[in-house]
Automatic annotation (TrEMBL):
InterPro entries: TCTN1-3, TCTN1-3_dom, TCTN1-3_N
One record GO biological process: protein localization to ciliary transition zone
Domain Tectonic-1-3 stretches: 159-319, 328-523
Lineage, opening ranks: Eukaryota, Metazoa, Chordata, Craniata, Vertebrata
Superkingdom classification of source: Eukaryota
GO cellular component terms attached to this protein's record: MKS complex
Residues forming coiled coils: none
Subunit structure: Part of the tectonic-like complex (also named B9 complex).
Keywords, alphabetical: Cilium biogenesis/degradation, Glycoprotein, Signal
Family to which the UniProt record says this protein belongs: Belongs to the tectonic family.
PANTHER family noted in UniProt: TECTONIC FAMILY MEMBER, TECTONIC-1
The Tectonic-1-3 N-terminal domain, residue ranges: 18-123
UniProt name for this protein: TECT1 protein
Length: 552
């Protein structure tokens, strides 16, 4: 009836609650636990970071553009403030289109249903349903109960991700650290894949040392670790080693580490006090913890001691992999070696980088020739030294050439001397680049030049004379990456240049000595422009005489 229809239109029509919280969306947040430059919606950025931004790379964040009405998060910078501040506003945005979605009330369409995997129990059911020549993809019945549990939640697989606190049976894995002062706080959780090392001070007394939980071994291993979050599978923390430290600082490794040693008071001493704990976690590529071990340093205190200093650290190793020392986290640290590796053979597409495993380069480092005291190149074969980030280096030796030496074996010997037995193909762009992240590795560009003069090229145009390598020059270009407050060193280009020279045939019985050199140069390509100077593009060409005709 008309009156019923009019009454229905007279009632206020309000939109449903939004499904997506646009205030928590940030498409420019690319770095984990770091502030992205000019990303105004990055929750990792502080007020000091916002004061250094020049613009907001993403000024507005919205959900589905097909909705009739939705929230919009707008970001801007107040450059007139001192210092500049970020401005955040949450406004209502109305879609002017007539064809828009008023309510997303079909909850099953908001998530992908995980496919059912055939097993020995349901194989006959799958065969009956899909074994015929034709079948329907529509289920037997649609579940229209919107209050039922979301199918994605029922089959959700939990896993540890970077920075997530490691859960235990009672709470989380503790890694004591100083908070406001130097005193230890046991409320610091250990984050997954976050290598940490802390030192703090603990108040103790000989009379009460056996009653202080934080100085007992049991306090750090009594709770089992959850293999994955919200699971019932537990991983016990085993004792890997126990080192006993005497009052004068001498340390002794105990043979048996399977026996707990509680604090005990002997006369005026308290022994078996925990001075340090080192956790080592082994995990899989699926984010599951499979092993946990702890190494302890135990000591003793006298009745004069009122406090002790404890040290704690935690490290992570992926199963079936060899741990490789990092050279920074994430950017390179000056003085630490460059990490290098190879691309595995047989892959049509780059999937991961394999680390070098040579005896002279067991830590996957880029190396150069190491100078020796006698300066003999043949005696220096195999002697390598790692290239340290930020250090320009040069080394060399003297090669004595006789008339009996052949060109091809001599050339190969010099190449092995300059580049090593197996020269890497890639260099890590960051100090903590993982082998699985192929885009974090920079390929080494190989160049070759010759010291041959123009006269030699004129009389020997086909390069028939023997060309031997005499020098290797490595140039590493790096830039400052990330926040302006805490820039990180990132390698963007590595070039290896081999210089050759012409070796003329020597008369019988004659000898010749040539120098062989290796050098490394680091170039910073992130130098900022001078303040107040704006570089305008210039064109270095000559205009024709009638370019402005008929004007003067």
């Amino acid at each position: 009836p008309p009156e019923t229809r009019a009454a229905a239109w007279a009632r206020p029509r309000s939109g449903p609650a939004p499904v997506t919280d646009v205030a928590k969306l940030c498409v420019c947040d690319l770095l984990v636990a770091q502030c992205d430059v000019n990303c105004c919606c990055d929750p990792d950025c502080s007020a000091a970071d916002f004061s250094l931004f020049t613009t907001c790379s993403v000024p507005i964040v919205t959900g589905d553009s097909r909705l009739c009405s939705q929230k919009a998060a707008t970001y801007s910078l107040d450059v007139e403030a001192n210092p500049p501040e970020r401005i955040f506003k949450l406004t209502d945005q109305v879609n002017p289109s007539v064809f828009c979605i008023h309510a997303t009330n079909y909850k099953q369409a908001l998530s992908f249903r995980p496919p059912e995997m055939p097993t020995s129990e349901n194989f006959d059911l799958f065969l009956k349903r899909f074994g015929s020549a034709a079948f329907s993809a529509k289920p037997d019945s649609w579940n229209m109960n919107t209050d039922a549990q979301n199918p994605s939640d029922a089959n959700e697989t939990y896993r540890y991700e970077y920075g997530v606190p490691i859960q235990t049976a009672d709470a989380f894995l503790r890694l004591p650290s100083p908070v406001v002062s130097s005193w230890c706080s046991d409320a610091n959780p250990a984050g997954f894949l976050v290598n940490q090392a802390t030192k703090c001070t603990r108040s103790v007394s000989v009379e009460k040392c056996s009653n202080i939980q934080a100085v007992s071994m049991l306090f750090y291993i009594n709770s089992s670790i959850l293999a994955v979050p919200k699971s019932s599978q537990m991983v016990n923390i085993t004792v890997q080693s126990i080192v006993v430290q005497s009052l004068n600082g001498m340390r002794t490794l105990l043979n048996g580490s399977d026996v707990l040693r509680p604090p005990v008071t002997l006369d005026e001493l308290c022994i078996n006090i925990v001075l340090g704990v080192s956790y080592h976690i082994t995990y899989t590529d699926a984010g599951e913890i499979i092993e946990a071990a702890a190494s302890f340093v135990l000591g003793a205190i006298t009745k004069e001691a009122l406090s002790i200093q404890q040290s704690f650290d935690i490290s992570f190793t992926q199963v079936n992999t060899t741990p490789v020392p990092l050279s920074g986290n994430p950017g390179y640290v000056v003085g630490l070696p460059l990490r290098a590796g190879f691309q595995p053979q047989g892959y049509p597409f780059p999937t991961e980088i394999l680390f070098a495993a040579l005896n002279t380069n067991k830590y996957s480092q880029l190396t150069i020739l190491q100078s020796t005291s006698n300066q003999d190149c043949l005696a220096a074969q195999g002697a390598r030294t790692p290239i340290l980030f930020g250090y320009n280096m040069i080394s060399g030796c003297q090669l004595r050439i006789t008339a009996a030496m052949k060109c091809q074996p001599l050339t190969q010997t010099l190449l092995d001397l300059l580049k090593g037995q197996s020269f890497p193909e890639y260099v890590a762009s960051f100090g903590n680049s993982q082998a699985q992240n192929v885009l974090d590795w920079v390929p080494i560009i190989h160049l070759r030049t010759s010291e041959q003069s123009d006269n030699e090229r004129m009389y020997n145009p086909f390069q028939s004379a023997c060309q031997i390598p005499i020098s290797l020059e490595i140039e590493v270009k790096w830039t400052k990456y990330g926040s302006l407050v805490n820039p990180q060193a990132r390698i963007v280009n590595v070039t290896a240049t081999i210089t050759t020279t012409t070796l003329k045939q020597l008369p019988p019985g004659r000898e010749r000595t040539i120098p062989v050199t290796s050098s490394v140069v680091f170039t910073d390509i992130s130098s900022p422009a001078e303040p107040g100077y704006k570089a305008w593009p210039t064109i270095n060409i000559k205009l024709p005489f009638d370019f402005f005709f008929p004007f003067v």
